[in-house]
Each structure stands twice: as C-alpha cells, then as structure tokens.
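User: quick one
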Amino acid sequence: MSTTAVPPKKTNRIGLEIAAYKGGKTTLCAGCGHNSVSERLVECFFEMGIEPWSVAKFSGIGCSSKSPAYFLGMAHGFNSVHGRAPSVATGALVANRNLLGVTVSGDGDTASIGIGQFVHMLRRNVRQIYIIENNGVYGLTKGQFSATADIGSKLKTGVVNDLPPIDCCLQAIHLGATLVARSFSGDKRQLQAILKAAIAHRGLSVIDVISPCVTFNDHEGSTKSYSYMKEHGEPLHELDFIPACEDIAVEIAEGEIREVEMHGGARLRLKKVGRDYDPTDKLNAVRALAEAEKEGHVLTGILYVDTSRPDFVELLNLVDEPLATLPESKVRPPREALDQIMDELR
Amino acid sequence: MSTIEVSAASSQPTRTDSHVTNDFSIQVATVNGSGSQTANTVLMRALFQMGIPVSGKNLFPSNIAGLPTWFTIRASKHGYIGRKKEIDFLVAMNPETAQEDVRKLEPGAAVVYDEPLKLNTVRSDLHFYPVPFDRLVGPVCPEARLRKLVRNMIYDGVVAQLLGIDMEEMRTALYKQFGPRKAKAAELNWNAVKAGYDFAAANLVKTDRYRVERMNATAGKIIIEGNAAIALGCVFAGVTVVSWYPITPSSSVIEALTTYLRRFRIDKETGKATFAVIQAEDELASIGMVIGASWAGARAMTATSGPGISLMAEFTGLGYYAEVPAVIVNVQRVGPSTGLPTRTMQGDILSTAVLSHGDTKHPILFPSSPVECFTMMISAFDLAEYFQTPVFVFSDLDLGMNNWMSDPFPYPTEPINRGKVLTAEDLDRLGGFARYKDVDGDGVGYRTLPGTRHPKAAYFTRGSGHNENAGYSEREDDYMNNMDRLAHKFEAMRSRVPAPYVDIDQRAHVGIICAGTSRYAVEESRDQLRDEYGLQTSYLRLKAYPFTPQLSEFIRRHERVYVVDQNRDGQLLQLMRLELDPDEIAKLRSVRYYGGLPLDARTVTAEIAAQEGF
Ligand SMILES: Cc1ncc(C[n+]2csc(CCOP(=O)(O)OP(=O)(O)O)c2C)c(N)n1
Ligand code: SF4
Ligand SMILES: [Mg+2]
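Assistant: Done. Structure below.
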C-alpha cells in the first residue's frame, strides 16, 4: 500500500460509488443501534468491492428485521415472517449458490420465536452472514422481554424477568457456525473488521451485535445499554482485515499477533489485548464466554473461526450453476427415461 | 347372519354351480409388521398379469408392528377399482380379529384360515378352507426366524389354487417383487407358494363361487402408488429444490422422489446433483425453504399432510401476499389434530382454500389417479410460477399409499413455463420495472430473480403493506389496489387451471359432483343407480379450485345436484356456497362419508337413493 497521502477514493475496485450501497431512509428511532449496523454494512460492502446485486438480504420481523431496507438497495431483499428468516435464506441460497446472503435478525426474532430455525441453520453451516442485532428486548412490540433479556430486569408493569438469557454465540459455537463473533454497534472499527471477515468467510458467520434500543432498554442497569458496553465490553483482540489483494508486511513482536487465513487469500489479523486468545479452539471459546459472563464482562471480537468445515451447498453436492436457472434440458429427463420407468412398472 | 344350528363338521353350505368370475374382493387379515405386504402384492400382480382389472387397498394401523391390518384386493371385470364394501374371500391370519372378520362377511363368502383358529365353528353359511400353516411352513423354511414371513406366502398358493390363478403368473409376480438381487429369497418364498398350492390341490374341496379367468383388460397398464406418481411428476416438471418433514401418508412422495432424482438428475459429466432435497426441522422450515428457493427462482416443492398444512399457514399467507410461488402437496389423512393418521379423508379443502389470516385464496388441484398425479404436478409448478403464488395439490392416503392400476404417463408436450421473469437484458431494454404492476391485465406482475446482474433488478419483498413498486406502504389506496389485483389474479386462474371432467346424460335431472378419489365410488354408483333404480345421472368431477365456468353450467342444467364429500362437514359443497349464486346453491345436496376408509359405491348409492326417495 502506498504511504503517500491520496485523496479519499470515490469509487471502489469495481468502480461503484458508496451511493450504490445505500438503502432507503431508515425509519428506526434516532440513536437506535441497528442504524449503526446498517451503516457498517454499507461501508464494508463498498470497501470490499462486492457487486451489490450478488447479495441477497433476509430478515424476520422486528425493528432490526426492518433494516435490510436501509442498506444495499441494489440487492434483492426479503423481509419474511417472525423468526423464520433462516429457512427462507437457506432455500434461496441453495437455489442460487452464487448469492451472498446477509440476514439481519433481532434477539426476539432469533432467540425467542426463531430459536428452532436458528439452531438448525447452525447445524447446516449455510454460507451467509447472520447478524443478530441484540438489544435484549422486543423493540417493535414496545419493550417486552426477549430470550436475551437480563435476568432480574423489570417491565413498566412490574413484571420481573426470572429466566436466564440465551447466549446465541455459545449456541453458534456449539452447534456448527464456522465464524462466530460478538461486537457492539458503537465499536465502528471492530464491527467493520468482523463484517469484512464474514464477507470473506465461506460458511455461516453468526455475529451477535449488542445494539442498544434507546427507547426501551438503554437504561441504567441494562447490559444492552451504550454505557454498559462502554464500561464492560472487553475486546479480545484488535482486529484487522487484510483483503487478498493487499500485501502488508509489518514487523511485530512474536506472540502479539495471530493470523487467520480466510477463503480466497484474505487474512484476519488479531492483535493481542491483554491475554492470548486462540479463536480456533472451540473449548477455549466456550470457557472464555462462561468466565466473562460470571465476571460481568462482554467479550467482543472473533470468538471462534473454522475455515475447514464444508458449507451446506458443498454437502449437497450441487452442480456449479445455480439450481434456480438451470435450463429445461438439465432438469427434465428425456422421454426415454419415462419410458424406462413405465416399463419397470408394468 | 345364519341362525340355523348345524354341527361344525358339516358347516359348509352346499356347492353352488353359478360361478362368479373376475368380480370379487379378497381380504387378507394379518398383523402389522408380519411382512404380508409382499404376499399381497404378488397376489394382486398375478391377477393384473392375467389381464383382470384389479385394485389393492391397505388398511393399516398407526403402529410399526403388532396391530391388525387388512389388505383388500378387488378384481373387477367391469373395471371398477374403488373399494368394495362386501368381502367375498377372506384370508384370516390374525387370531385377534379373525372372529369379528368372519362375522362381518355376507353369506356365501369364502374363508381361508389358520386351522387352529377353528373359524368354521363361528358360522355355517360360509365356505371354510382350513390350512395348517405352521405344519406347512416347516419343511419349506428350515430357518425358524424367517418362518413368520414365509408363512404368508403359503396363503398365496392356497388362494391361487382355489381361485384358479395361473401359477406361472404368480411366479413371475413373485420374482419381479423380489428383484434379481434377492433371487435366493425369491426361491424360498416361491417354494412356500407351491406348498400352499399343493396342499390346497390335495386337501381342499372348492365349494365357493369365486374364480378367475384370463382377460385382456390390463395390457400396457402399469401399477403404481399415487405418491410415486406425484414424485415422477415433480421429476418431469423439473423440480430443483425439495424441502420436507416426514409425516404419514406423504413421506413416500419424497422418498420416491429422492430415489428418482438420484437416478435421473445427477449430471453425468460432473457427478453433481441438479437438485437439493432437504429434510427440514419442521414444516415451518420446509415451507420457508420452499418460499425462499422459489423466490430465488428454483422450482421448489414440499409434501405434507394435515398437521403440516396447519403449520404452513403463516408462510402460505406470505407467499400469497408477497407473490412467491410454492408447490405444496397435501396427501390428506383423517383430522382434526392427529386424527387417524393412517386413514383417508378429504378434510382439508375448506381450511386450505383460505389458509392463513387476512383475505387469502389459494388454488388447489385435485388429482384422482396416478396419471393425474403426474400431469397435475407439472401443471402445479407451471401455475405456481406463472401466477406467483402457492399452489396446493390435494391427494389423499387412498390415492397416495395404495397401488393403482394405471395407464402409462404421457411425456409432457409443453415446455416448462417459468412465468414472468425479467432478465438483465430485459431490464436494459425496459429501463426498469414495477414489481407489482398489472402490465398484462391478468393481475400478474413481472419479477426479477436475486443475483440478476443489473442495477435496476432489485426489489424488496415483504409481507407488510406495499405499493406497485414494492415500496413499504400503509396507504389505504395502495392496500386496496393491491388486494383487488390479487383478487383479479385469482379470477384469471379460472381459465388456466385444469377444467373438470364432465359427462352429461341428456335424460338426467340429477347430477353428481365430486373431486379426487371419490370418483371411483361415484362412477360405480352411477351404474348402480341406473341398473338398480333406473336413475340416470350426469357427472362432473372437479379437478381444481378456483372453480371454472363448467361448474355453474352443470348445476344449472340439473334439478338436483349431489356433491360427494369425504368429510363430515361437506367441505367441497361449502366451498361452492362461497362462490355460486343462490339459485345454484339451492340445488345442491350433500353426500358425505367420513369413516376413514376409501369411499365405496354402496355408500354413495344408498345415500342418493334415500334422498331421491327410493
Ligand atoms: C408470529 C408473530 N408473532 C408476533 C409478532 C409480533 N412481533 C413483531 S416484532 C416482535 C419482536 C421483535 O423483537 P426483536 O426480534 O428483538 O427485534 P427488535 O424490534 O428488538 O429489533 C414481535 C413479538 C409477529 N410479527 N409475528
Ligand atoms: S424501538 Fe428500540 S429497537 Fe426499535 S427502532 Fe427504536 S430504538 Fe431501535
Ligand atoms: Mg430485540
């Protein structure tokens, strides 16, 4: 990379301006964490030079699930039914293996009504970026508890949540997602690096983004608030995503840096912050999450990554062309085939 | 039942000379899991090979092993292949049900039974043929653990001898059933058939009236289950994505489909699949995947039964409102709830026609035969893609899981119709498009597929309110325009769905309407009504909802019209009430059967005769 100062680029490597990556105007509350996530998606897809029409966006129902309308307007989007974006995405991504899937869900959408589909999507390792905009509350229906709500939190009606929250990252690590990360909508740099790694990853990336709901759950004591994340968020590492085309060689002291080679030659660089963390070690990841929870910290960064497991489309042994547009000659067997079957049934 | 006291020894009625040839039903009563299916299929096939029209119906419990099951084979020189209520020839192998099975028979019926059951003491007006199965099976099957299965082949031999079924045909049928890879098993079983035959020839004196004679009414025909026919329809419709969750009686649709796809749809050069079959975690997910795949442009389908349909309601509404194709096969079973999972019914018509909340309407196709299962699956995909909406194909357990004699399937003559899809080149030419605009007057807009390489290709699909451009809208006019267009689209389907089969008798004042498998009982019943009551009838068999104009025409022509339903509430009739004029509705009368067995002609005849005042 050149070190001389150049004016900021107006177009990316495929010649598109950032405007080509924007979506409709948001209708979410000002200050809602979900808007920041949409902005990061716009930036990352722009910076990575992805053709917007090669992306397919999916969501369930909720404030978070509205957001696919607010980024990548040149990509097809499908705002489906509550909790069931995983199945819709799975069908579409199997139908056209060339699509890059991005699903945006909420904590209610994923961990409450949609936990069944979420879990089975994990097992399948369907290649897509699955973002949970986690605010610990049902935003769209005005403040009820979701399955990630803090234990002991209280509604206006006086009802107290007695049930423990589900940690979607733990589920994801355990059940087969191959890139699992947690981030904070307010941490621009980290979220960008994670999203870029997810774009490069050939498998299922689950990104749990703590994304505060300023209207219903940003109060004192909420672990999903801006202030809590600023105080208790604990980045595991400093992340740098290095695209395949860039070759940086920097001198770094040994033990400070880990590198994960992503599909297609891109690299993810993890610089140690405090303790050493190996994101390819599943057990270690689970232990770290459990310990952090006990101490009241929120670990952020790449929690787990496995670039070797085949994704669902590979397991299905599909032809290279998208199933969706195979010509009749490939999908309707010839007359002789029917004759042969009929003979066997005589 | 006979009340005459007779001693057990002389309990058989005297020999009758009037033969009944190629017109009877055989019922085999066994225990689930005893492997009698092979024996029954061989019997059925042998009759078929002798050129005799034949049908087989398996009445089985929701259980893997141990509960009673009955298999009924009907031979009919007239070509009637519906269920026959009366059993003429019983093979009583199940001690649990034998007494009751025998009590239910009409006088003059024949009974082959396991000798220790001493069934000849139960009645005196039947023809009894005791067979010592245990004694016969020993010599032909030295391996004790196989005896339970091989034992069943013995009754095949006995029945063949008593009815005069050609043993060469039995042999051909048996070897076909086992296939070349199981030649040893076939031989073992064949020896059992022969043992039964030889025993009967040497020890039994034929006194009943039933016998078979070679005919030429099955030449060129095939034998197939409806579910396999649906599977073949999917294969030749060019299905590419299949997602399902197992449920009786639909599972064998997907099992057959998977087998055929693996055989015919693996790319020869690369060894890769031109299809995906995904067993989903539930029906919420299977329909979700179908909707997602269809949205992305695949020909996608699922198969299920009542409980699955209930779970698919919300996604069906999304498919209707967001206008995404889907093909959903419902092999109906008895509801509500779990109901009788292994019995047949047409009980999901009304709930599916308007499945999901809000104003929705869904097309339903009603195949009545394997040929229609095949051709209507192809129509279903074409309709779903053309009209961009979920299309249901309604089979039932009777059609789906029983073996049917059928004409061979016609190779499709029309090319696959993928509907209104714009490509990047189209967009270059047009400069853009409005997703939900009715350009052609049939209510169907143009869509693009995700991944289309064009800056103007994308649109946003949502189940919430939207305008012509697929933009979010809560406006009154946008909502109403959209709903009106959807209603108009449904109207446009009337000229595109399969038209009914209509048989007008110029003399008839009475008409009969039915759909799907009810046809077999109704067609036979028309002959009974004519022959026994002198009642001429016209007949209309629906093949689809929405109804086509032929329905009103038919009703208007007749004074009284009987609508035959296989459910308690007369659902087909109720659906007509929603659409027809009051003077048409006034002519409708209901014939309903909802006992879970395949509908039989006698039930229809009795009900119509009663309502006609005979
Ligand atoms: C089947 C169904 N049940 C209930 C609802 C109502 N509903 C809409 S959004 C929502 C919760 C959304 O919460 P979350 O996924 O956390 O999204 P957020 O609004 O917090 O971003 C609920 C319960 C629905 N749309 N569909
Ligand atoms: S209610 Fe909460 S989640 Fe919904 S838009 Fe407002 S801040 Fe965001
Ligand atoms: Mg939420």
